[in-house]
Amino acid sequence: MVLIPARMSADEERRWVEVMLEKLAAQEERRLLDDEDLFRRARELSERYFEGRARPDSVRWVTNQNARWGSCTPALGTIRLSHRLQGMPEYVIDYVLLHELAHLLVPGHGPGFWALLERYPRTERARGFLEGVVAAERLPHSPCPQRD
Questions:
Q1: What is the pLDDT of residue 16?
Q2: pLDDT tens for residues 98-129?
Q3: b/e string for 118-146 if b means 16 or more Cβ within 10 A?
Q4: What is the pLDDT of residue 115?
Q5: pLDDT at 30
Q6: Is 16 inside a domain boundary?
Q7: Residue 50 and residue 9: Cα distance in Å, rounded?
Q8: Which residues of 41-51 are buried (b: 16+ CB within 10 A; e: fewer)?
Q9: Residue 101 maps to which CATH number?
Q10: How many domains would you assign to the chain?
Q11: Digits of tens for pLDDT over the chain (148 positions)?
Q12: SS (H, E, C) 78-113
């Protein structure tokens, strides 16, 4: 939904929406990380928060995870992040990367696992963001009101 002043003409509205969509697309493009960037970011986060102990062998985006934000196979050192995260704020992607990196060190979700994640100062905020996304996806979608 795009909110615009009621005084705009239909032509002005179309131009404004086009400009805003172009700006959003440019921002989105700058924020998208490829698999190589994602791997590099994971290594940086491991260094910063886990003293470099979490060492993934691969980190990549996948399109077959719609129920999870990420997954990890500790035996193989592989981390996969859902494509649904692309375009989300950087701190949210960092949190999911750290979550999966922590699984390279601690397999379950016990106290030791959460103690590792507490090192990231935006853990609670990122979890809240993701919970909000899930809640919004469950809301019934009502059609946008039409303008005359």
A1: 74
A2: 999 999 999 999 999 999 999 999 999 999 99
A3: eebebbeebeebbeeeeeeeeeeeeeeee
A4: 97
A5: 46
A6: no
A7: 55
A8: bbbebbeebbe
A9: 3.30.2010.10
A10: 1
A11: 567 778 878 888 777 777 766 666 555 544 578 999 999 999 999 999 999 999 999 999 999 998 999 999 999 999 999 999 999 999 999 999 999 999 999 999 999 999 999 999 999 999 999 999 999 998 887 555 555 5
A12: EEEEEHHHCCCCHHHHHHHHHHHHHHHHCCCCCHHH
Q: Which domain holds residue 37?
A: 33-137
Residue 21 lies in a domain: no
Written in H, E and C, the secondary structure of the chain is CCCCCCCCCHHHHHHHHHHHHHHHHHHHHHHCCCHHHHHHHHHHHHHHHHCCCCCCCEEEEECCCCCCCEEEECCCCEEEEEHHHCCCCHHHHHHHHHHHHHHHHCCCCCHHHHHHHCCCCCHHHHHHHHHHHHHHHHCCCCCCCCCC
The answer to whether position 28 is within a domain reads no
Alpha-carbon span 52 to 45, nearest angstrom: 8
Classify residue 4: in a domain, yes or no.
no
- β-sheet bridge partners, residue 58: 78
